[in-house]
Amino acid sequence: MKSLYYPCFGFFYLVLVSFMRESNAESNGVYIVYMGASRYPDGAPRNDHAQLLSSLMKRKRNPVVHTYRNGFSGFAARLSEEEAESIAQKPGVVSVFRDPILQLHTTRSWDFLKYQTALKIDATTSASSPSQSPYSSGDDTIIGILDTALEIQKIIGAKYYTDPDAYDTPRDGSGHGTHVASTAAGAPVSGASYYGLAKGTAQGGSTASRIAMYRVCVDGGCSGSAIMKGFDDAIADGVHVLSLSLGGSPGRPNFQTDPVAIGAFHAVERGITVVCSAGNSGPSPASAVNVAPWIMTVAATTIDRDFQADIILGGDKVIKGGGINFSNLNKSTMYPLIDGRSAKLSSNVNGDDDAGNCIPGSLDDSKVKGKIVVCENSDESYEPRDKFDDLQQQGAIGMIVIDNDENDLREAVAPGRDPPLFDILSGTSMSCPHVSGLTATVKSQHPKWSPSAIKSAIMTTAITTNNVHTLITTETGKRASPYDIGSGEISISSPLQPGLVYETETSDYVEFLCNLGYSTDKIKTIASTVLEGFSCKNNVSNPDEISNMNYPSIAVSNLKKNVSKTANRTVTNVGEEDSTYTVSVEAPDELSVEVVPNKLVFTKNVEKLSFRVIFTLGVDSDYQDFFGSITWSNEKHRVRSPFVVSNASQNELM
After folding, report:
1. 385-422 pLDDT, tens per residue?
2. Same domain flag for 579 and 451
3. In this structure, are residues 107 and 251 in contact, taking their beta carbons and an 8 Å threshold?
4. 24: left (phi over 0), alpha (psi -120 to 50) or beta
């Protein structure tokens, strides 16, 4: 299923882990009671939060796990199902939901992005030292990271949120948070490598920024209540950027029960840019997570580096596979090869599939001893390393993994080495801090810019060609659409001088929630900045109106033949005072796209201008998506907005 929400609410096609999927675990009866904004619209602190807590604590002993009172109001507590249902009916309560468990989602990557960037920034906005690269600034910015903590010292503070019996320390137990933090803001370290491979200088994107770490994740995952507490504390601590390489399961989001979306909404209200990983479930449709429009959602792509290992079969046939080979096997010796199905244990009751996947306990010791075993990877209940550890105990000397998803061979061999000082990780967990570091750099150069202005600057200057200057393609070789790459691959200098930005206000997000069917009363409780007298139009869901949110991309649904739909936008000039922009349109032949006016003239006294984009479909066809872009440009700037137009309704798309 496809959703027009997903590709247009901020994907960024990036370089470079395992993301966090929602678990079915129910967190020992812990419920989150979300009560919206921490203050009334007139600025007065809310008292219903304290009243509800006081009433609860009179009835139960030590029920409260976390309280939220800085950026938003609420608490997490151990409740029975009946108590949760009762509290959900109380005035001022937006939602009550079980505490979900979410799951966690380079020396070359920054140089790769640097060489992809065409714009050379002006000296007035470049780094403070001539020897610094344009992506190494970020002075006076604080990046808050919600993750597994870290093992580095360049931080200004660290907090952790766990149950008393858990790992009670802000130090990193897995390395994930350390890798994320160093990617975002790590100081340059020369000679970094993975056992000699990928040798170079490891550094973060905003080396002058500082890190505030909030450990919300342990080995079993990341509880929603801890994530919301991390958001609440980070808002009070005054961070400028929040980076989260974690998330729930794909699917249509519920913004009343999604801990990341809730925390991010209130952070953005306070001027904090929130950057989140899109997850690693793709590239199938509607597989992204953290897709709320107030979040900067980051996907991952490849770079110009590949690790290969050759497998030489009889007759000198060579198969090249992705992998790193640190084996001590003799290259001149022939070793026997066996596939998992042929090595099946006779007592294996689970059949060929377990054996083919080399599931521990499914293979016969005598059949694998002294051999290299070929294993499939279609059953992901065990990691390849776990499979190899078991095979090694059975006497196998090597393993070849056939990854059906990637259609390549991956060779894994016995490590037999001390733990490395550096590691190679990939996926959206690592692409996310790249954007977090870039965001901190932009914030440092433009401290008064709002989160939406920064997001717009990054989206509208994104690149849609690869490192050999051809259009970015999918893994199948087809041209990538906005469903695949969103706005494109980030530029690391162009966002510092974007020319024009789309300012998305809290009022836009409020209208977005109205159009999704959220009630006026709920929205007034959630948002702290709604205007007096605000109400949703007729309190009726109207998804088609989402197209008019002042966002850097455009999504239009339910467009029928010879019927026009209009999307309205307003841009703010952040470049030269006296400047003129003209528009160009890229669209398929079946779709007519008219921009009115087609020229924008800015002066000292005219900083904001509006325009309309009118879409007319000239064909009558079955469900189909149409992709294109509009670009405002002058002699210096190109401000590109991708669009997706569908002739299906939002309900059909979901």
Report:
1. 789 889 999 999 988 888 755 434 444 343 456 777 77
2. no
3. no
4. alpha
Same domain, residue pair 286 and 219: yes
- Residue 652 is predicted with a pLDDT of 56
Give me the sign of the Cα torsion angle 106, 240, 494, 188.
negative
Strand order in the sheet with 308-312: 308-312, 318-323, 408-412, 398-403, 372-376, 337-339
Of the candidates 421, 434, 398, the one whose C-alpha atom is nearest the C-alpha of residue 300 is 434
The reported pLDDT for the residue numbered 112 is 53
Q: What total number of domains does the chain contain?
A: 4
Q: Per the domain annotation, does 54 fall within a domain?
A: yes
User: Same structural domain for residues 507 and 551?
Assistant: yes
Residues tagged active-site: 147, 176, 429
Q: Cα–Cα–Cα angle for 466, 470, 475, nearest 5°?
A: 65
The alpha carbon of 200 is separated from its chain's Cα centroid by a whole number of angstroms, namely: 26
Residue-range definition of the domain harbouring residue 393? 308-412
Residue 327: DSSP 8-state: -
Quote the mean pLDDT of the chain: 83
- Point out which residues pair with 460 in neighbouring strands: none
Alpha-carbon gap, residue 451 to 202, rounded angstroms? 28
CATH assignment of the domain containing 599: 2.60.40.2310
